[in-house]
Amino acid sequence: MKRVDDFRLRFGKQELVPIVIGGMGVDISTADLALEAARLGGIGHISDAMVKTVADRRFNTKFVKEKLKLYKYNVENPDKSAVQFDLGQLAEATRLHVGKTMEAKRGPGMIFVNCMEKLTMNAPRETLRVRLATALDAGVDGITLAAGLHLGSFALIEDHPRFRDAKLGIIVSSLRALQLFLRKSARTNRLPDYVVVEGPLAGGHLGFGMDWAQYDLATIVAEIHAWLVAEKLDIPLIPAGGIFTGSDAVSFLENGAAAVQVATRFTVARECGLPEKVQQEYFKASEDKIVVNQISPTGYPMRMLTSSPAIGSGIRPNCEAYGYLLDANGSCAYVQAYNREVAAHPGARRVSVMDKTCLCTHMRNFDCWTCGHYTYRLKDTSRKLEDGNYEILSAEHIFKDYQFSTDNKIALPD
Ligand SMILES: Cc1cc2nc3c(=O)[nH]c(=O)nc-3n(C[C@H](O)[C@H](O)[C@H](O)COP(=O)(O)O)c2cc1C
């Protein structure tokens, strides 16, 4: 019986353990987690979501405070279009976050950054260009284009000196999305170095509608694989979403996948950014406590624990400090929903907003407990302690369990 370690992900001459830890914003996939994946010979992701917040946390900078100071006058204003990102500061925060992570890298693996298009930041093209170009400047090994179609993203950096040497990949959830991306990027004369195929059981935002349960990862991977073969396109495919054991991974690797991308199992790793209190919520979750809902202002369905404090919370939008989801017109679906509730309840000290959530603030505070479908199986991956909590695992333990396990077994910590 084969195990993941019998396979290798190949980028030219470079060979890697075919395990990719997926990006988990806002700093859930920390630099420490990504560094462990790289040390062990796989690929780890950091995320550039809310990079100013992440930089402030890691390096004691004051990016968020300074932005809030600049736009404080607008806090009570329902119109957020005046709130802009300073591109120089955005670059500086990205340079710190990515650059310091790359400086700390040891071992034969790689570190990529997850860049979500849906972080439109009140100036989608300009801010995305800065994020992508600065990550390349800062020496990142690769960029995974996520949460969005990214039809113009390659063109934004085609003049960058590292455009052809860094690994650039994209996450898709259908053959159609991949075809569209390839068609729109054809002019840059550059194929992606890898394609992550994310199925409906993943954590975070889903590339499906609320009919997500009708789709199946293996079927989508097989369809994309067959099309690539027919087109004679040799692009490594990396399935993601619901790959919970080494044996799950092997079955994809035996069917043409070049690697697997996993995340949920690492949400209970010591190196993961979630506070331990939240990690215990993940451990203890039962299947009926995991929902896919539409409260994300991005418009994509998102999977989370039903006990997430973000659900129903009616806090005042915090765009003057954050503002990562403001679209090109300075608008966000949460701001609209909040303003509607305030208008409907004049004089109320607090409102509840059920249909949308202030994702920036709640992700920043680890109050939106997004998770993969199989979160309810995390309790089978650790030991229950006498106080009823579960033992937090090391990233190395989880990584090696994926790498070496057989027969659908999951190794418990020593
Ligand atoms: C807590 C959490 C946060 C996530 N955040 C992001 C994100 O910010 N961007 C992204 O592209 N994918 C995100 N994902 C998806 C993962 O990167 C990954 O593709 C997927 O969850 C793999 O499936 P698995 O969790 O079943 O292993 C997130 C997943 C989890 C569990």
TrEMBL record:
CDD domains on file: NPD_like
Keyword terms of this UniProt record: Dioxygenase, Flavoprotein, FMN, Oxidoreductase
Keyword Cytoplasm applies: no
GO function terms (MF aspect): dioxygenase activity; nitronate monooxygenase activity
Parts forming coiled coils: none
InterPro entries named in the record: Aldolase_TIM (IPR013785), NMO (IPR004136)
PANTHER family recorded: 2-NITROPROPANE DIOXYGENASE
Protein name: 2-nitropropane dioxygenase
Organism expressing this protein natively: Zoogloea ramigera
